[in-house]
Design brief:
The structure holds 3 protein chains of 3 kinds.
Chain A: E1 11-13, E2 33-34, E3 37-38, H1 39-46, E4 50-54, H2 55-70, E5 76-81, H3 88-97, E6 100-103, H4 106-114, E7 122-124, H5 131-140, E8 143-146, H6 149-161, E9 167-173, E10 187-188, H7 193-204, E11 208-214, H8 224-244, E12 250-252, H9 270-273, H10 277-289, E13 300-303, H11 307-310, E14 314-325, E15 331-335, E16 352-354, E17 362-368, E18 377-385, E19 392-395, H12 402-405, E20 416-419, E21 425-429, H13 434-438
Parallel strand pairs in A: 4-20, 5-6, 5-13, 6-7, 7-8, 8-9, 9-10, 9-11, 11-12, 12-13, 15-17
Antiparallel strand pairs in A: 2-3, 4-14, 14-15, 14-19, 16-19, 17-18, 20-21
Helix pairs in contact in A: 2-3, 2-10, 5-6, 8-10
Chain B: E1 8-9, E2 14-17, E3 22-26, H1 28-39, H2 43-53, H3 58-74
Antiparallel strand pairs in B: 1-2, 2-3
Helix pairs in contact in B: 2-3
Chain C: E1 5-10, H1 22-30, E2 36-43, E3 59-62, H2 70-84, E4 88-90, H3 94-102, H4 104-109, H5 119-124, H6 130-137, E5 144-147, H7 152-156, E6 164-167, E7 173-176, H8 179-193, E8 197-201, E9 206-215, E10 220-231, E11 237-242, H9 246-259, E12 262-271, E13 277-283, H10 290-295, H11 300-308, E14 324-326, H12 336-345
Parallel strand pairs in C: 1-2, 1-4, 2-3
Antiparallel strand pairs in C: 5-8, 6-7, 6-8, 9-10, 9-12, 10-11, 11-14, 12-13
Classes of the chains: A alpha/beta, B alpha+beta, C alpha+beta.
Chain lengths: ~450, ~80, ~350
């Protein structure tokens, strides 16, 4: 007689209550393939954990977003937000689609230059730019977004040394009804700081005021807030037109569009409630078109959205290390990907799928990473099928911020592969080795330990 | 280890404990282990029976049995500890 | 003429001490004069009493929580539809409405009909947005603010006097008499229902409710005002009486005509000692006391089904004033095997 297939024994107590936040869960279908490639094969070749990014998915998201805006507004430009994911291969997919670069540090600026981005198509944001960085950007004709008055004066000085007039914009913060209001960046709109800064720039006569910029926050679930922001920037642009007869070239509404991830504390899943590109585009375009800006000189609309373009284009494959039982009887599973490479698990409830077929039985599980650190928890509560050591799980929507905010804590970072448009798997970042970290360390001679 | 003898188990894997009023569901392997306990088999007997019936290594079934017993104790479904 | 038999899916079978509207909706549908019904219960929890009321509910299915997303709900409804051929679904929970609204077109393509508010109506009447709503339509509402950070409670002390109402986005409301209570209710609510939490001015007065039905074109098809006679410790009416109040009807008519409300709703109002009605909350669905409306001559669920099917519906006849509803509880005796079947198979 043939032996039956074994599955770990499983018993669940039935608790009946009223509909609550963590009630009965639906089935999570197995995901044996990511972007058309078998998970087992990927792990065999490239190890685990493993980030897998899809070129096709990025291109499709980009085109969808671009279409949403360009069908509503005549003149639209996207700028790839480097901080969201600055793997050069990923940046270049965006650049090949027509994206400019949006950088927030000298490091990112140099990365964009190394990626052969036309310096005139680099937007340089952020509150901390050095003299050298500003001078380089000014000489290159990059677009420098001024964050504070000290930087404005710094630039006026630098203009003396620069080979061409610095091309600048100011970053404006404002009340758009969004909580929290990001008032730490840029000049405030409501209290007149922004208008003051504009006046100082115009009176200095040393800077070319190209545009106006705002970035109202992150993971914004209310598309209408962007309409308010666009209206306020249009209002500043009109003021410039009237007082100085100066027409700005662009309005930059920054990023902050929500991805399909589910924020912790949200009752409904992000896949249901995050606004679509069309909703954001409608709010922004109609605000600009309905403003007093003259139809024949409408400024270029720049968007720096990052998260919403790349989050769903990446999965993280991880392998089960062990199962254990907590003192309260709850099941815990340890996988080989921790918060060191899954920074976003601090604020999202990432969707997690098993990577192999399983029976219909599910158990409520705490999912821990492998770090020897109490906060290393990927999900406090997730309904998973019965997993065994060596099984894989697939973590969804990990393309944004994880590959830039990751931490080198007690271990090394894993491989990242790209499934290209032809379906080929390309290694785009090699797993780190001891040398990646040790290379930069220096050992004082007297501390060297020599065994006789 | 002895199961609480008055526990009612159905073929669908539904378990009812009349002394506490609690209900549980089991998967087929869990159901099988409980029925062996109800028959009075000891752990060694269960482990060898399971290996005859299922595609499972001794190490795996021993580990899972240990965990399963702990859960049964946690849910007060067994009479005594041994 | 033979009456057609419709297969109608109904949620909210939790006829408990803070009851869902499902069971009274089913009673209303069973008494409809224009059609016969086969009722398909849609339940989230295995102990929702309606599941076991076999004289009212013909078959029940478990459905996934809204937190699981619309894809999970859709695939479950597709399965149920393949077994039952649903004609209409009447969702009865606030927290599930968004998901059903999101699926409205897809369900319609499967020939499953609903009659729900639009996204715009659903959002702007939301208690989080009620202050703006009041301004926009010229309806008196208590001053309120949505907050996501407990520290804002301290800042709000300039704008509010205690006591204040602390309300969850979906359910739950508490009266807080000081900052400590406000903070504790804030965390209690966010743990269960997420952010934001609404802080609302406490209005002293007598509570009135109106159940109504709008056709989506601005016409009022039904409206029955009720005064609560007895309230449970959860703030639910245990007894109430139908009343005649021109002001309340006029307010309801204004609400429907200005929002072009689509579907059934409940208005919760507070009448102050100086005779002003404050609109406290708008529930975008049938309330649990809907059977009073049926009992006084307006079968709102029946009319709702006709609207869902695209039939013309004339305003319902005048209702009887001065009739009471008195709720009572009833102990069903259920064999364990029924609970077992539902738990194992997800249907009964």
């Amino acid at each position: 007689m043939e032996k039956k297939v074994y599955e770990r024994p499983h018993i669940i107590k039935l608790d009946a209550g009223m509909p609550g936040k963590f009630g009965m869960r639906a089935e999570t279908p197995a995901m044996t393939h990511v972007f058309g490639v078998a998970v087992k094969k990927l792990v065999e070749k490239h190890g685990s954990p493993l980030f897998v990014i899809s070129e096709e998915s990025i291109r499709q998201s980009y085109r969808k977003a671009h279409k949403a805006f360009s069908t509503r507004y005549p003149n639209v430009q996207f700028a790839w937000s480097y901080k969201t994911n600055y793997l050069s291969a990923i940046c270049n997919i965006f650049h090949s689609e027509g994206s400019w670069a949006e950088v927030v540090s000298g490091f990112e600026y140099n990365k964009a230059i190394a990626n052969n981005v036309d310096p005139k198509k680099i937007i340089f944001n952020g509150p901390g730019k050095s003299d050298d960085e500003l001078l380089t950007a000014a000489n290159n004709g990059s677009l420098i977004h001024i964050d504070h008055l000290d930087e404005l004066y710094q630039l006026i000085d630098i203009a003396e040394k620069a080979t061409q007039r610095p091309r600048v914009a100011i970053r404006v913060n404002m009340d758009t009804g969004i909580y929290p209001q990001w008032d730490r960046f840029g000049f405030n709109y409501e209290n007149g700081q922004a208008w003051d800064a504009i006046n100082k720039i115009m009176h200095s006569g040393k800077l070319d005021l190209m545009g106006l910029h705002t970035h109202i926050g992150t993971f914004i679930m209310t598309a209408s807030a962007y309409g308010i922001a666009a209206t306020k920037l249009a209002d500043l642009a009109m003021g410039l037109q009237q007082k100085f007869n100066h027409t700005i070239k662009y309005i930059d509404l920054g990023g902050g569009f929500a991805s399909k991830n589910t924020l912790k504390g949200s009752y409904l899943p992000g896949s249901d409630i995050s606004p679509s590109f069309d909703e954001y585009a409608e709010a922004i375009s109609s605000a600009l078109l309905n403003s007093s800006l003259k139809p024949d000189s409408l400024p270029l609309l720049i968007l720096e959205t990052g998260r919403a373009l790349v989050d769903s284009a990446a999965f993280l494959i991880s392998t089960v290390i062990a199962n254990k039982r907590l003192s309260n009887g709850k099941r815990a599973t340890i996988v080989d990907a921790g918060v060191n490479i899954m920074f976003t698990s601090f604020w999202y409830q990432h969707q997690i799928s098993p990577a192999q077929g399983a029976s219909q039985y599910r158990e409520d599980t705490v999912l821990y990473g492998p770090l020897c650190m109490n906060i290393d928890c990927l999900r406090e509560s997730v309904n998973l099928p019965i997993l065994n050591k060596g099984d894989q799980v697939v973590i969804h929507n990990v393309g944004a911020y994880n590959m830039t905010q990751w931490m080198q804590f007690i271990t090394l970072r894993p491989n990242i592969v790209l499934v290209d448009s032809a379906g080929e798997v390309q290694l785009i970042r090699e797993a780190e080795n001891m040398d990646s970290i040790q290379h930069h360390e220096k050992m004082p001679d007297k501390l060297v330990i020599n065994h006789p | 280890m002895r199961m609480n003898q008055n526990i009612a188990i159905s073929e669908t894997g539904f378990l009812f404990n009349p002394s506490t009023g609690e209900s549980f569901t089991l998967n087929p392997v869990g159901l099988k282990l409980i029925s062996y306990y109800k028959e009075g088999l000891n752990d060694d007997e269960i482990i060898s029976r399971m290996q005859e019936e299922y595609q499972v290594e001794e190490r795996e079934i021993s580990r899972d049995l240990l965990d399963f017993k702990n859960v049964l104790k946690h849910y007060l479904l067994v009479d005594n500890n041994d | 003429m033979t009456k057609p038999t419709l297969n109608i899916g109904v949620t909210g079978l939790n006829a408990i001490d803070s009851p869902g509207p499902g069971v009274p909706v089913i009673r209303a549908l069973k008494e409809a004069t224009s059609f016969n019904v086969r009722i398909i219960g849609l339940a989230y929890e295995s102990l929702e009493p309606g599941i076991y009321m076999h004289n009212l509910v013909d078959k029940s299915y478990m459905i996934p929580y809204p937190t699981e997303g619309t894809d999970a709900l859709l695939s479950r409804l597709e399965y149920i539809h393949s077994c039952e051929k649903l004609d209409v679904i009447i969702p009865n929970f606030d927290a599930e409405l968004y998901s059903f609204m999101k699926l409205e077109k897809k369900l319609l393509a499967m020939d499953i009909h609903m009659f729900l508010p639009t996204f715009e109506q659903f959002e702007e009447r939301h208690k989080v947005n009620l202050s703006d709503f009041g301004k926009k339509y010229g309806i008196d509402v208590p001053f309120g603010k949505a907050i996501s950070d407990p520290h804002d409670l301290r800042d709000l002390e300039d704008e509010f006097d205690y006591p204040v109402m602390i309300k969850g986005k979906w359910y739950d409301a508490y009266v807080a008499h000081n900052i400590e209570q406000a903070r504790s209710y804030f965390s209690k609510i966010t743990a269960k229902w997420g952010y934001p939490v609404v802080v609302q001015k406490f209005v002293q007065g007598t509570e009135y409710n109106v159940i109504g039905l709008g056709d989506g074109k601005g016409n009022m098809l039904a409206a029955v005002p009720m005064r609560k006679q007895f309230i449970t410790d959860k703030g639910k009416a245990w007894a109430g009486i139908s009343i005649e109040d021109k002001k309340l009807i006029a307010l309801t008519e204004k609400f429907i005509s200005s929002t072009k409300w689509r579907g059934a709703f409940e208005l919760e109002l507070m009448k102050t000692s100086d005779n002003i009605y404050y609109l406290m909350e708008i529930n975008p669905r049938i309330p649990a006391w809907v059977y009073l409306a049926v009992g006084v001559g307006q079968n709102i669920p029946e009319a709702l089904v006709h609207l869902a099917l695209g039939n013309d519906v004339a305003p319902l006849p005048a209702y009887d004033v001065g009739k009471l509803f008195i709720r009572y509880s009833y102990d069903l005796i259920v064999d364990r095997s029924e609970f077992e079947n539902l738990s194992v198979n997800g249907e009964l």
